């Protein structure tokens, strides 16, 4: 069975909750995490949302699956910073709620990697790693764009949604 090295960039409510659920995935090899806030990294590691708390370059370098769970406005800048460290087979999941201008900003259609808009529509009134929880995405819609993904990416989307307990909508 294929095992994946996972990187989660942004460990607030969404990134932390994602980490909790993916930590139980049978295909997870390791979850590396990065956040601009040292305290969020420490809490995420102590609570088990990630296995390793690392600087951005180390978290992303060679990761199979990279989840960007930062505020939407930061996604293009974050992606620009992590691009040099992606491997040729990396799949990048953008968890932001806004897609069109982000896709244009990252030049999604010209990338050598699969870049997937993956937005679980779950959350809480307040964010932060201290509010992250297992099962946050159970029963929620997961909006995925664009609908024309490679067979590999489409399969991964389905598997990850199943682990999260959400329902995919393309």
Name a few traits of the molecule.
single chain; 170 residues; alpha/beta; Rossmann fold; 8-stranded mixed β-sheet; 6 helices; 32% helix
Question: How would you characterize the overall build of this protein?
Answer:
This protein has 170 residues and is an alpha/beta fold. It has one domain: Rossmann fold. Helix content is 32%, strand content 22%. It is built from 6 helices and 8 strands. An 8-stranded mixed sheet has the order 3-2-1-4-5-6-7-8, with helices on both faces. Strand 4 (65-68), helix 4 (75-82) and strand 5 form a beta-alpha-beta unit. The longest helix has 14 residues, at 151-164.
Unreliable segments (pLDDT under 50, ≥5 consecutive)?
none
Global geometry: globular
Order of helices and strands: EHEHEHEHEHEEHE
Helix count?
6
- Decide which structural class fits the backbone: alpha/beta
Q: Determine the N-to-C terminus distance.
A: 27 Å
CATH superfamily: NAD(P)-binding Rossmann-like Domain
